[in-house]
User: Fold this.
Amino acid sequence: MPRIANSIVRRAYAQDPLLPALLGVCRDLSLAANELRWLREHVDELPLAPAPRPLNTSTRRKKRIPNNDKHRLRKIKEAKLRDLVKQRSRGTPLQYLLGTEFFGELELKCGRGVLVPRQDTASTIAHLARLIRDPRNTLPNELRVLDLCTGTGCIPFLFGHELRETRHDISYRMLGVDVSTDALTLATKNLRRFQRKPSSSNLFNTSTTEAKDDGEREDGHNAKGAKVLANFMWADILNSPFEPQIENTPLPLMSAMNLARHPPFWDIVISNPPYISPDAYRKTTARSVRGFEPRLALVPPHPSTIPSSISTGVGSYTTSWPEKTIDTITQDAGDTFYVPILNIAAQVEAKVVLVEVADVEQAVRVARLGENFGFEGVEIWRDRPDDTDEAFPSSPSSPYPKQHSQDSSPGITKKRETKESKNDIPIVGAGNVRCVVFWRGNTGAAWLGKETQNDSILRSESHAMQPSMSRTDKFDGRYHADALLLASKWKGL
Ligand SMILES: C[S@@+](CC[C@H](N)C(=O)[O-])C[C@H]1O[C@@H](n2cnc3c(N)ncnc32)[C@H](O)[C@@H]1O
Assistant:
C-alpha cells in the first residue's frame, strides 16, 4: 500500500489534530474529514451526561448545568472521541463505531458479530421489489418473503419498505432466518425500532393483534391498508431433519418453521449467504473485513461437514432429479449454500428466488443449478440491474473478493455491451456481478416482467388466478400431507 505523503499528513493535522490517525484507514483526506465529522456528531449525541445532582424540588426554575459539569462533560466527550478515532485507525468498521448503517433509504442498527449490510446488496433488493410491486402485477393477498441468512434483517426490511411505496392493496409477510443469535438479536432490535417509529416507517408487526401504534388499525393493517407481519427465526439451513439433532443447536429450517407454525409456502426466497471460499478469504478479502466481521457470515463450512442430503440435495424433498449431478456443476468451496437454498426454495414453492454471489464464475455455476430445482428462468444481475448502456465503473465498495471475475479491477471504467450473456445466461445491468435471479411458472415470469410468447395470456391468467392464490388452511394442510408422504417415502416406509 503506498505511503501517504507528509504534506497531506501536515494538512490533515492543521485541519484537526485527530485527522492524521484516520488517514491510514481512509487513504483520502476528505473521506477522513467526513469520518471524523460523523464520529464527532455521534459522540455529541451520546447520552454522556455527568452524574445528575439531586434536584431541588422546592423550585421550578429551569435546571442549568453548572460550568464545572459542562467542562467535565466536554472532557468525557473528547476522551470518547479520541477512543473512537483510535479504534477506527486500527480498522474497526465505522458502522460498528457509529452503531448504524444505511441500507437503501433505511437506517439500520448494526454491531459487532453481525455483517455490516452493504449498499450493493440494497440496490439489487430494491430493484427486485420495484419489479414485483409493478401495479400491473397481480400479487397474492399476502405476499410472503423468506430471507435466508438474514443478518441485521436488512433485506426483508428494505423489500417491505419498497413494496409498500405502491402496493397498499396487499399484505406483506416476512420471515428472516439466521443461525447466529447475535444476528437475530440485532434484527429484532431493528424490528422494534421500526415499530416504534411514526407511521411512515411503522411497517413491521410481529402479529396481527399487536398493531396499535400510530398509523395502525387494530386489525393489523397499517394506515395505508396493508397488513405487515415480520418475524425472525433461529434455524440452520444446513441442518437436515433426517440427522440426529443436538440439544441447544438451531433446528433445520423446515422443522423450525413447522414448530413455530409459520406457513409452508413462500412466494419469494432471497438470500445473501456466506459465499467466500476459505482460500479467497485468506488471499483476497480485505484485512479490515477479516479482522472485524464474523467469519460465519462470509465463509461457508466445508461440504464434508454437512449432511450429504443437504450439500447435494439428493434424497431431499425434491422429487425430480436430472441426469446432471450437482458435483459436475458446482465445485467451488464457496458454493456450499446454494444447493440447500434452492432446495428450500423448491420446497416452499417460491416463484422468484434471488441469491447473492461473489463473481461471474460463481454466478454461472449457481445459475446452472436452477433447472435441478424446477426453475424455468434465470438471469444474472449486476449491482445496478436497471442501468443499461452507459460506461460503468466497477464498484470498489464491496468487501467480497472478485477473484477470477471479469470485473476484478475496482475503479476501472469499462464499456459494457447492452445485451450480455455468459454460457447463454443473460447478464443485466451495470457494475459488478452481484446476484442470480430465478423464476418459475407464469406467475414468477409475470412478476419479473418477463416477456413470453403468450404474455398477454399470462397477465389475464394471473388475474384469474387471484382467488386461488390467497392461501387457505386447506391449502397448507395439503402441503403437510405431501410432506409427510415424501418423508415416509424417503425413510422407506
Ligand atoms: C453474508 S451474511 C448476510 C447478512 C444479511 N443478509 C446482509 O445482506 O447483510 C450471511 C449470514 O448467514 C448467516 N448464516 C451462516 N450460516 C448459516 C446457516 N447454516 N443457517 C442460517 N444462517 C446462516 C450468518 O450468521 C450471517 O448473518
